[in-house]
Task: inverse folding
């Protein structure tokens, strides 16, 4: 049996790499991929807790999280597509029309 | 068992680091696919076969193919040069994420991880009935309302994506 602290540390590490990706990368699609990575890290800790607590609820919730992630990816990528049509760039620093 | 877990854990962290350090976004997407496969293998080790299958089918299959399509559609020539040119920002980002990591890690490795009461599905039950059967039973009894709502959410997402990405003809 794998000790659950190790799996939870792996999930924390993946989450932190996702946070760093959001903060350091400037390509908007790569930032979006980092968000997917963070969702996956949370999924991993859901499965770990579900297994160590003999419960199935965590696994059912992962089903919902993955569906929401798919919906989010579809809507987010279409927003990126339509922004790219007007701004002709993927650099997130140039999407500043809502800043003041 | 433990060795295999460590191999997959190291591989998944390496794939995730690819997102941070690879310049070409397509390479980032491919290394993320590797991470998703390794996570799928870890799910199998945790007796969550359904999640592993969904992980490979939906994440590594559908979502990452969508990302690759969009990346190839929006081939912008200078995408390799988008780097954060503010070194203080990098240091701040590193410190902030280190703080978050210490916070989460100290919570997870606390001496008495504050866990709730045990559920009613120990490993023997899961292996006897099958995890997919159990998930299906729960989805169509306890979580039926959420299941219906998630169907509507998917429909709304599909319609929304078509409306947002549609070219507007004047």
Result:
């Amino acid at each position: 049996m794998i000790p659950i602290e190790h799996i939870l540390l792996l999930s924390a590490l993946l989450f932190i790499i996702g946070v760093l990706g959001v903060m350091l990368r400037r390509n908007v699609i790569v930032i979006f991929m980092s968000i997917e990575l963070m969702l996956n890290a949370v999924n991993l800790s859901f499965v770990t807790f579900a297994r160590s607590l003999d419960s199935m609820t965590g696994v059912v919730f992962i089903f919902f999280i993955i569906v929401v992630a798919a919906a989010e990816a579809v809507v987010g990528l279409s927003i990126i597509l339509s922004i790219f049509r007007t701004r002709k760039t993927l650099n997130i620093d140039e999407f500043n029309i809502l800043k003041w | 068992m433990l060795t295999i877990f460590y191999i997959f854990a190291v591989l998944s962290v390496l794939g995730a680091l690819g997102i941070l350090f690879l310049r070409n976004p397509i390479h980032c997407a491919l290394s993320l696919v590797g991470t998703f496969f390794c996570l799928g293998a870890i799910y199998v080790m945790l007796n969550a076969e359904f999640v592993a299958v969904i992980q490979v089918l939906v994440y590594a299959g559908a979502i990452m193919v969508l990302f690759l399509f969009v990346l190839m559609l929006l081939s912008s020539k200078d995408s390799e040069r988008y780097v954060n040119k503010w070194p203080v920002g990098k240091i701040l980002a590193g410190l902030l994420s280190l703080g978050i990591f210490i916070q989460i890690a100290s919570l997870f490795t606390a001496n008495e991880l504050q866990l709730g009461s045990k559920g009613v599905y120990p490993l023997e039950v899961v292996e006897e009935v099958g995890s997919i059967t159990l998930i299906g039973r729960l989805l169509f009894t306890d979580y039926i309302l959420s299941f219906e709502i998630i169907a509507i959410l998917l429909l709304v997402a599909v319609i929304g994506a078509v409306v947002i990405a549609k070219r507007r003809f004047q």
